[in-house]
Amino acid sequence: MERSVMSVSLLVLACLVSSAAAQSAENVKAYMVYLYAQEKDWDMNAAHVYCAPWDADKPYEWRSKYNWTNFGGPNGPIGKDACGKCLQVTNTATGDETIVRIVGTSAASLNLDQPVFDQLDSDGQGQVAGHLVVNYTFVDCDPKPPGPGESNVTSYFSDDYNPIENDWTYPSRAFCTALDGGKPLEWRKKYGWTGYCGKYSSSNPEDICGKCLKVTNTATKDSEIVRIMDTCGLEALVLDKKTGFDPIDTNGEGNAAGHLLVDYEFVDCEDQVNSPRLVFSQ
Ligand SMILES: *[C@@H]1O[C@H](CO)[C@@H](O)[C@H](O)[C@H]1NC(C)=O
Ligand SMILES: *[C@@H]1O[C@H](CO)[C@@H](O)[C@H](O)[C@H]1NC(C)=O
Ligand SMILES: *[C@@H]1O[C@H](CO)[C@@H](O)[C@H](O)[C@H]1NC(C)=O
User: Fold this and answer.
1) Where is the signal peptide (predicted)?
2) 3-state secondary structure 40-56
């Protein structure tokens, strides 16, 4: 009896593993298509996309959150089942990466709307060849932050990461290296770095690695966006000295005391592109 229960759960597990493994593909072709999402103000009916009957009534915020793509496999859901889902797409030639939302079907693997095709084609070779060669993986369109944040917590600094000197290479012993160390340079250097050991820390790197924090110096109200790339042992944060700590220590009291008192909140890294942030000197 026990044995059959176990074999059933092993079967379920095997199915889960294989369906998870089937949600991505490597080295597939992505062509360009003119969906005119932006020009049509993200109106799925006006753009005549396949998924319009199911998704055209979704809120504007939802429809305009990501650029659009048509999708045709080979791995993961296709047709109606794929509508509204999100793919992280990486140009294998350049490492350029972005998230797109599926709005239709495709005879090829992907048909990317023109603006996002161009965005991924930073070396122009996609235009030349007529397609990009990409890796894709299905991702959560609305990942939940681990928690809201905390007020008036201590942040120390680290002199050891040295991202600027090391071309933003993740230190081999950092908590997030296995998960994020292989991400493209543009991604790794987009924000200053921090180690995180606050209230919402986790022993699972997937829960916190790569997430962004808005950190505010409570004394001066200077704030910035930083990305979690390590864990830490003390208090809440260990900001990288040059790219995280110094930019908000504008009165020098943090350097004098060896720490800052900060407020922090989890924010969506992608939404922060145009938000005011301090830029460390590179
Ligand atoms: C769509 O792609 C364009 C071109 O890269 C970019 O400027 C824009 O921010 C993207 N829109 C969204 C919603 O991601
Ligand atoms: C694409 O996937 C292949 C096979 O897994 C991998 O070797 C390669 O590094 C990936 N490319 C990028 C840019 O992530
Ligand atoms: C912040 O924390 C410090 C040290 O723990 C404390 O002295 C101060 O009163 C706190 N400030 C606020 C506004 O809670």
Assistant:
1) 1-22
2) CCCCCCCCCCCCHHHHC
Answer whether 200's CB lies under 8 Å from 146's CB: yes
Of 214, 227, 201, 219, which is closest to residue 152 (Cα–Cα)? 219
Name the closest-CA residue to atom 14, ligand 1. Answer: 66
Q: How far is 241 from 47, CA to CA, in rounded Å?
A: 48
Kindly give the number of the ligand 3 atom that is closest to the alpha carbon of 218. Answer: 13
Which residue type does 77 have?
Answer: P
State the burial class of residue 258 (Cβ atoms within 10 Å of its Cβ: 0-12, 13-18, 19+). exposed
Determine if ligand 2 sits within 6 Å of the CB of residue 92.
Answer: yes
Q: Is residue 277 over pLDDT 60?
A: no
Return the ligand number nearest the Cα of 133: 2
pTM above 0.70, yes or no: no
The pLDDT confidence band at residue 272, using thresholds 50, 70 and 90, is low
Ligand number nearest to the C-alpha of 117: 1
Q: Would you place residue 74 in the very low, low, confident or very high pLDDT band (cuts 50, 70, 90)? A: very high
Cβ(135) – ligand 2 distance below 6 Å: yes
Q: Are strands 110-113 and 67-71 parallel, antiparallel or unpaired?
A: antiparallel
Determine the residue type at 28. V
Task: Using the atom order of ligand 2, give the atom closest to the CA of residue 135.
Answer: 1
- Give the pLDDT score at 16: 43
Taking the CA of residue 152 as reference, the ligand 3 atom at the shortest distance is: 1
Closest residue CA from atom 5 of ligand 2:
26
Whether 44 and 52 have beta carbons less than 8 Å apart is answered as yes
The least confident of 22-26, 27-31, 77-81, 85-89 is 22-26
Average pLDDT over residues 157-183: 94
